[in-house]
Design goal:
The chain has about 60 residues and is mainly alpha-helical. Helices cover about 50% and strands about 10% of the residues. The protein has one domain (about 1-10, about 20-60). The chain has a two-stranded parallel ribbon.
């Protein structure tokens, strides 16, 4: 993802396989955003999952 981000001048969004365990690493690659559909809707408490993912994304 980092190489793609460096090679293009448009926003890059990470899609697929992204969850709490790796969202920081994905963000560290410099992407502009992520898609976390399964990480949210694949849990019993979608509100909690969304909050936790948002907090993880906002961490420096």
């Amino acid at each position: 993802m980092k190489q793609i981000k460096e090679a293009v001048s448009i926003p890059v969004v990470g899609i697929g396989g992204i969850g709490l365990s790796n969202i920081g690493e994905v963000k560290g690659a410099g992407v502009d955003g992520v898609s976390v559909i399964s990480a949210i809707f694949g849990t019993p408490d979608i509100q909690d999952a969304a909050r936790r993912l948002a907090r993880a994304w906002e961490k420096p």
